[in-house]
């Protein structure tokens, strides 16, 4: 069950250190080789036991906390991983095109033509899901269900029947992702959100498409995080980026 985590941690060079750490209201930011983001947890105790020790820590050491059952520590670890893997240069090379040519739409809008008439599940209640609701047979699974959502334990029954499954990357922090991927073997799986590591190794574990974030203006994004912003990062120096299994496979030919 730990394979994804161990591979992500092992991909971090040992010599890189953390230059800055910010724990904002909505985002955790780690600055090292680049700027990495992860969503600030909504569950668990809001206490950072590592506070005062993070700056200067080897990024690989902090990345190891992605396996922690303290979700704040786990999110710090994922932001650390993303600070090395989600660099503008690396993601552009993987995609085979400049980041300016990446469509600045969310994954749900990007896939709306492909999911028409299909059975679609979304893990996590994202904003703007109405773009999908009228096009497909949509099921939303949420740990804190709103009207119309199903509680997340329903995934055991719902996911094996789906054509497409969109999974929030915060499932890496709460450790539910490995089981969700086991349930999605018949579906096309899209991992979504700024917590997403843009790493080809993810495609070896049942994920077909990565929809994450690359920070191209660290100063502006840092200010948004410090001031408690959420989606404002996308108007202030963060880009939505997308990478498919097929793109990576073509690059290996």
UniProtKB/TrEMBL annotation:
Residues 107-238 form the Putative heavy-metal chelation domain. It holds the Pfam family DUF364. InterPro entries: DUF364, DUF4213. Residues 5-85 form the DUF4213 domain. Transmembrane segments: none annotated. It comes from the Bacteria. This is Heavy-metal chelation domain-containing protein.
């Amino acid at each position: 069950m730990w394979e994804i985590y161990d591979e992500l941690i092992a991909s971090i060079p040992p010599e890189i250190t953390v230059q800055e750490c910010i724990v904002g209201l909505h985002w955790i930011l780690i600055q090292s080789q680049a700027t990495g983001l992860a969503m600030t947890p909504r569950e668990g105790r809001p206490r950072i036991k590592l506070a005062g020790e993070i700056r200067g820590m080897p990024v690989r050491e902090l990345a190891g906390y992605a396996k922690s059952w303290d979700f704040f520590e786990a999110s710090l670890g994922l932001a650390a991983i993303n600070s090395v893997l989600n660099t503008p240069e690396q993601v552009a090379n993987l995609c085979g095109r400049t980041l300016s040519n990446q469509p600045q739409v969310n994954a749900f809008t990007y896939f709306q033509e492909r999911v028409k008439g299909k059975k679609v599940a979304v893990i996590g209640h994202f904003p703007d899901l109405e773009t999908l609701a009228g096009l497909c047979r949509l099921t939303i699974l949420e740990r804190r269900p709103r009207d119309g959502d199903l509680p997340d334990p329903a995934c055991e029954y719902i996911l094996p029947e789906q054509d497409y499954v969109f999974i929030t990357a915060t499932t890496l922090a709460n450790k539910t992702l490995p089981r969700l991927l086991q349930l999605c073997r018949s579906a096309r799986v899209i991992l979504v959100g700024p917590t997403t590591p843009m790493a080809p190794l993810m495609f070896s574990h049942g994920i077909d498409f990565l929809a994450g974030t690359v920070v191209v203006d660290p100063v502006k994004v840092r200010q948004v995080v410090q001031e408690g912003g959420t989606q404002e990062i996308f108007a202030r120096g963060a880009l939505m980026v997308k990478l498919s299994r097929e793109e990576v496979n073509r690059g290996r030919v």
